[in-house]
């Protein structure tokens, strides 16, 4: 038996490129924060969409609520696409792509051509991710332990 030296892959310094040209580094704290923000926004969007879906179903109709839900689900997919695009920014790309707009445009075109779908609830459902952004912004601006000052 020969004692051949074990082959270990070379270790790279931070920022040094691998043989295939991509930089290899452990996820930084800022990327972990970004991942947490992404998850929080998606969960908040789903919760807001669920509350609005049930409310629209209760006060209007199931058909209208399903139109809203279609738009809200498309908004979640759009938000995921945007987050992935932002995560690649700087490492692989220099600017954001506009491919995700095709998702929204395609949805509106399908809604305008298909008689069972209504454009307005779908559009408002799509905008649900923006409501989640507002909820997140208000939560981060308002200190968690503070109460509004009372005027006496």
Please render the helix and strand layout as text.
Layout: H1 29-59, H2 62-88, H3 99-113, H4 119-126, H5 128-141
For the termini, the CA-CA separation is 90 Å
Beta strands, count: 0
Class from helix and strand fractions: mainly alpha
Gyration radius, rounded: 23 Å
Largest sheet: none
Residue share in helices? 55-70%
What's the tally of helices?
5
Mean pLDDT: 79
**Can you tell me the overall shape?**
flat
Q: List the helices and strands in order.
A: HHHHH
Low-confidence stretches: 4-22
As for the number of domains, it is 1
Strand content: under 5%
Put the structure in a nutshell.
This protein has 152 residues and is an all-alpha fold. The protein has helices spanning 29-59, 62-88, 99-113, 119-126, 128-141. The chain has one domain (29-140).
Structural write-up:
This protein is mainly alpha-helical. It has one domain (29-140). Helices cover 62% and strands 0% of the residues. It has 5 helices and no strands. It has helices at residues 29-59, 62-88, 99-113, 119-126, 128-141. The longest helix has 31 residues, at 29-59. The termini are far apart. The model is unreliable at 4-22 (pLDDT under 50).
Jot down its keywords.
152 residues; mainly alpha; 62% helix; 5 helices
